């Protein structure tokens, strides 16, 4: 007896169709698991190349930013560098400094030698690679003196460098504004600068008054009027004045007023100054003050205005010592010595002997 084999169908779910792109990715993925060393090296090299390109792009961006910042700082004169001394010229601008030896240059040299130059000079860059000085004449002189003495490291000077300006007015203004804060600049020196500025054709300045308004714009109106008065005084007496920078403001201004009021006063002043060709600065000021304090030709019943307080003659000098420099100031009834030393720590008897020896030397001179 035979058995019948039962046959039946089993319906299996059909596999979902895989999109061609996805199938391709799976195939590549499977191949990647089995890729050779060459393919791995190429992939690693490509990754390194992308990283290097990104780093280079970042560096270029930073360099561009720094270049733009440098151009901005250079345009504003904020770039400081050490430039050769022989590359600094002082030809373009006339200076208000009085000619001759600077008595206090020694102190500046000592300061620069000890602590360096704390305030760089200001220059304009020329097309020929050299520089025009704008601010810092005394600092430049001190560096040149130290270099001439054989000091090491003073062949180059720190300088703030700014672009060269075609118009010279801005350069003059910067020079003058710095000098206005100096206590030792005289009205005669400022007036001399204004007169020289007027005499330069390229400045297109018609009068000293205009020059004063341009150069000393930041000064007060009263101060500008004093400068104009001194300019007129120098024009009248410049051939006989030996020490115009020593004339006090009140003496110079009043002397100019008296000369306007009195005919012949200018000639009397000239005659008095020429009568003493060997006079020093103090004597010259005394002669000028005598015409201010005792003017002639006053109307009947009028007296001269209250005389100005006489200015005490003063002599300053420096004495080189083994441990430094002593600064001395001598005037009527007064002698002052200044040095970086604690004199209170010295025995009183030693000080007495030193003072006695000092007077003994003075008595010998007499």
UniProtKB/TrEMBL annotation:
Segments forming domain ParB-like N-terminal: 81-180
Database matches in Pfam families: ParB_N
InterPro entries per record: Chromosome_partition/occlusion, ParB/Sulfiredoxin_sf, ParB_N
SUPFAM superfamilies in UniProt: ParB/Sulfiredoxin
Biased composition (Acidic residues): 11-20
Cleaved signal peptide residues: none
Chain intervals for the UniProt region annotation (Disordered): 1-56
Gene3D superfamilies: 3.90.1530.30
Single GO cellular component term: chromosome
Biological process terms in GO annotation: chromosome segregation; positive regulation of sporulation resulting in formation of a cellular spore
Basic and acidic residues bias spans: 21-33
Domain of life of the native organism: Bacteria
PANTHER family reported in the protein's UniProt record: CHROMOSOME-PARTITIONING PROTEIN PARB-RELATED
UniProt protein name: ParB N-terminal domain-containing protein
Organism this protein belongs to: Sagittula salina
Origin organism lineage: Bacteria, Pseudomonadati, Pseudomonadota, Alphaproteobacteria, Rhodobacterales
């Amino acid at each position: 007896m035979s058995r019948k084999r039962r046959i039946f169908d089993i319906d299996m779910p059909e596999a979902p169709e895989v999109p061609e792109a996805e199938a391709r990715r799976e195939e590549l993925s499977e191949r990647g698991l089995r890729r050779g060393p060459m393919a791995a090296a190429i992939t690693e090299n490509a990754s390194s190349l992308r990283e290097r390109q990104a780093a280079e792009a970042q560096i270029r961006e930073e360099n561009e930013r720094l270049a733009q910042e440098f151009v901005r700082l250079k345009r504003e004169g904020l770039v400081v560098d050490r430039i050769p001394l022989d590359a600094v010229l002082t030809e373009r601008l006339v200076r208000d400094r009085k000619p001759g030896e600077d008595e206090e240059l020694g102190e500046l040299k000592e300061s620069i030698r000890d602590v360096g130059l704390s305030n760089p000079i200001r220059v304009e860059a020329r097309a020929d690679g050299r520089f025009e000085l704008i601010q810092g004449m005394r600092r430049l002189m001190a560096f040149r003196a130290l270099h001439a003495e054989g000091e090491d490291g003073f062949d180059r000077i720190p300088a703030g460098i700014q672009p060269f300006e075609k118009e010279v007015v801005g350069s003059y203004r910067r020079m003058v504004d710095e000098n206005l804060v100096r206590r030792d600049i005289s009205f005669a020196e400022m007036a001399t600068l204004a007169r020289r500025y007027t005499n330069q054709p390229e400045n297109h300045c018609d009068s000293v008054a205009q020059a004063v308004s341009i150069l000393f714009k930041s000064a007060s109106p009263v101060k500008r009027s004093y400068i104009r008065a001194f300019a007129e005084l120098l024009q009248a007496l410049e051939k006989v004045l030996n020490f115009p920078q020593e004339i006090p403001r009140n003496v110079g201004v009043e002397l100019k007023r008296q000369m306007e009021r009195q005919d012949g006063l200018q000639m009397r002043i000239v005659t008095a100054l020429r009568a003493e060709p060997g006079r020093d600065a103090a004597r010259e000021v005394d002669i000028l003050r005598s015409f201010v304090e005792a003017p002639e030709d006053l109307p009947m019943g009028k007296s001269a205005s209250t005389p100005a307080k006489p200015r005490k003659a003063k002599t300053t000098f420096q004495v080189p010592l083994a441990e430094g420099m002593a600064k001395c100031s001598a005037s009527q009834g007064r002698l002052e010595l200044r040095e970086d030393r604690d004199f209170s720590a010295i025995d009183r008897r030693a000080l007495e002997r030193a003072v006695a020896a000092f007077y003994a030397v003075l008595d010998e001179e007499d």
